[in-house]
Design brief:
The structure holds two protein chains of two kinds. By secondary structure, chain A is mainly alpha-helical. In chain A, about 70% of the residues lie in helices and about 0% in strands. The radius of gyration of chain A is 22 Å and the shape is globular. Chain B is built from ten helices and ten strands. Chain B has helices at about 40-50, 70-75, 95-100, 110-115, 115-135, 150-165, 180-195, 210-215, 235-240, 240-255; strands spanning about 1-10, 15-25, 30-35, 55-60, 65, 80, 170-175, 200-205, 220-225, 225-230. Chain B has a six-stranded mixed β-sheet, with helices on both faces. In chain B, strands 2-1-4-5 form a four-stranded antiparallel β-sheet, with helices on one face. In chain B, a hairpin with a 2-residue loop joins strand 9 (about 220-225) and strand 10. Chain B is globular and about 60 Å long. The chains are: A mainly alpha, B alpha/beta. Chains A and B meet through helix 6, helix 7, helix 8 and helix 9 of A and helix 2, helix 3, helix 4, helix 5 and helix 6 of B.
Chain lengths: ~350, ~260
């Protein structure tokens, strides 16, 4: 509510997001950016609103991507069915692993989720049915019956639609009884429980929801790439999701989108730089990791709450000051019982 | 309403609560006093479910609750106002109070994501009741502020408003007046009296003995984790054990006021 972004800004951003891909020669980068925004929006629900940590959100992207690859390539099931199952299976998976995992707190939870990602990678790499050492090639294009998506552009618009859906669901959930319970957990678990919030069940529900977003993004990725292997979900990418969430602003609806766009653009620029002739092949990764570290440190030093909350707070302060100037000063010392009954 | 039987809880071999039995009938305002470390807060945490007892039982409204998790007890109508603020700092004052309604409402995540009509109706009701609760504790003008920006006295009021949102049948108040100014104490006393008059069962821990004596129907005195006396304020004031263990100086002090 107080973290609302003016509708005009959203409309302009939406138009830009829809028009830009028409002028880009290759949309791989763009689609990765949009899907990262979907994943980080979910991650921000879990980390920002519920106050939990996940270093291994790539695990749920993997489950979604693998759902699509296995169902279409291995089992020959319809692509659309596979895409619908991707977020559902990711959520179910999160719920099951969350039962033990979410009893951990703080650093332990962070390491637990990281371990989860490593386990998922190892399982994909060793079980041939899930791709084994080679991965699963030849995921068919998304479509219904004979109507099949061709080219990159439809995937971009599908991803944008999914992002809009993720934002809408997040907004509705945050501004609800359930969402208030989620946010209360981050403040004080004991006080939240005393207010009737079932602590573990609420954490599980948010975890599953954020995993569903990641799984859906992973499913689209599988169709787009169209290849899934154990190396499709590196730990560095999961770390990047967190950096995006922190820079954009944990606990803000739009923070995930802003963070994903900014960090993706930065990485893209660095890639362009490192691809200049005459530079060693290691320039790319070195620049990228260096940039992650630098950006994260700068953000934590100067805008620890992230971009969106910092701006929102400045706007709210200004409004409160104006309200204080307008209101009679005795409001502040109004006696406790004067408005009883 | 509440029957606590032979309740014990030890921390590393030291009993914080030892064989405590307390019965609070419906509608009673029960004061709980005792020196520091007497086990008053531990007793409240055991009743609210924040701590598990090592032995003994807790019955509330005719059913055993001592194995239930905190949120289930909250749904049954046990509300607690903690000694420390324990607010939800990232949320507005109004939202803090609205969380309190979770104990008395239903709509879940799916209904919220889809914005079902039933969920929207419930939301509207919660919002209205939250404004009413804020008005009742005199915080209506602060509804949209950040909760963490409130001064201590108002944080306490906020907690009371949050507890009331759960429509409690038993309200546990753990030193609600500590750190408040005299006028704020007076206002708090009036609010407690009013809730009591409306029929709410209340347990009140308070260091300000004169305040407890004034408000409570009956008083339970704890010392070193055990009940050493129970009775009306007048009986407690005359009880030799209480005077020896604890009241002595303070009672004389309260009389002098």
């Amino acid at each position: 509510m107080t973290r609302r972004i003016p509708a005009l800004v959203v409309c302009v951003a939406a138009v830009i997001a829809l028009v830009v891909p028409l002028f880009l020669p290759d949309l791989s980068f763009y689609i990765q950016m949009i899907l990262a925004a979907v994943i980080v929006t979910g991650l921000s629900l879990f980390m920002g609103y519920a106050g939990q940590a996940s270093l291994g959100h790539g695990a749920f992207v993997a489950v979604g991507a693998l759902t699509v690859a296995v169902m279409t390539v291995r089992l020959g099931l319809p692509p659309l069915l596979a895409l619908i199952c991707a977020p559902i299976l990711a959520a179910v998976f999160a719920y099951i692993v969350g039962l033990p995992l979410l009893r951990l707190r703080g650093h332990y939870l962070a390491f637990g989720t990281l371990a989860l990602l490593l386990i998922v990678q190892a399982v994909i790499a060793t079980v041939p049915f899930f791709g084994g050492g080679l991965g699963i090639f030849g995921v068919p294009p998304l479509g219904v019956g004979d109507a099949v998506i061709s080219g990159q552009l439809p995937y971009v618009y599908l991803s944008l639609a999914v992002l809009a859906l993720a934002l809408l669901i997040s907004r509705n959930v945050i501004r609800s009884r359930f969402g208030r319970g989620v946010r209360a957990l981050a403040g004080s678990e004991s006080a939240a429980a005393s207010s009737g919030v079932p602590v573990l069940r609420t954490k599980l529900a948010v975890f599953a929801l954020s995993a569903a977003f990641a799984g859906l993004a992973g499913g689209i990725m599988a169709f787009f790439t169209p290849y899934v292997s154990s190396e499709s979900f590196p730990v560095a990418t999961s770390i990047a999701y967190i950096i995006m969430a922190v820079i954009g602003g944990l606990g803000s609806l739009w923070g995930g989108v802003i963070g994903a766009v900014l960090v993706s653009l930065l990485v893209q620029v660095l890639n362009a730089v490192s691809n200049q002739p005459g530079l060693p092949a290691t320039t790319g990764p070195v620049l990228q990791y260096g940039a992650y570290a630098l950006v994260l440190i700068l953000a934590l030093l100067f805008i620890p709450k992230g971009i969106v909350p910092t701006i929102a707070q400045a706007m709210r302060r200004r409004r409160d000051r104006r309200a204080d100037a307008a209101a009679p000063t005795d409001v502040a010392v109004e006696p406790w019982a004067s408005v009883q009954g | 309403m509440l029957t606590v039987t032979s309740l014990s809880r030890a921390f590393g071999g030291v009993y914080a609560t030892k064989d405590v039995s307390v019965t609070v009938p419906e509608g009673e305002l029960r004061g709980v006093i005792g020196p520091n470390g007497a086990g008053k807060s531990t007793l409240f945490n055991l009743i609210g479910g924040h701590l598990r007892a090592n032995a003994g039982s807790i019955e509330f409204g005719g059913a055993r609750v001592d194995r239930l998790p905190v949120h289930r007890r909250a749904r049954l109508g046990i509300a607690i106002v903690f000694q420390g603020a324990r607010l939800f700092p990232e949320m507005s004052v109004l939202e803090n109070v609205m969380v309190g309604a979770n104990a008395a409402t239903r709509a879940g995540a799916v209904a919220a994501a889809l914005r079902l009509p039933s969920q929207r109706n419930e939301e509207r009701g919660i919002r209205q009741r939250a404004f009413a609760a804020l008005g009742r504790v005199g915080l209506a003008a602060w509804a949209e502020r950040d909760a963490e920006a409130l001064p201590l006295g108002q944080q306490r009021r906020l907690q009371v408003a949050r507890a009331l949102m759960g429509e409690p049948r038993l309200l546990l108040l753990d030193e609600p007046a500590s750190g408040l100014r005299a006028a704020e104490r007076e206002d708090l006393s009036e609010l407690i009296t009013e809730l009591h008059r409306e029929g709410m069962t209340i347990m009140l821990i308070e260091h300000d003995v004169s305040m407890v004596m004034r408000l409570a129907d009956k008083i339970t005195v704890l010392d070193l984790g055990e009940v050493i006396a129970e009775g009306t304020p007048a009986e407690i004031r005359r009880n030799q054990r209480v005077i020896d263990a604890y009241l002595g100086g303070e009672a004389a002090h309260a009389d002098a006021e």
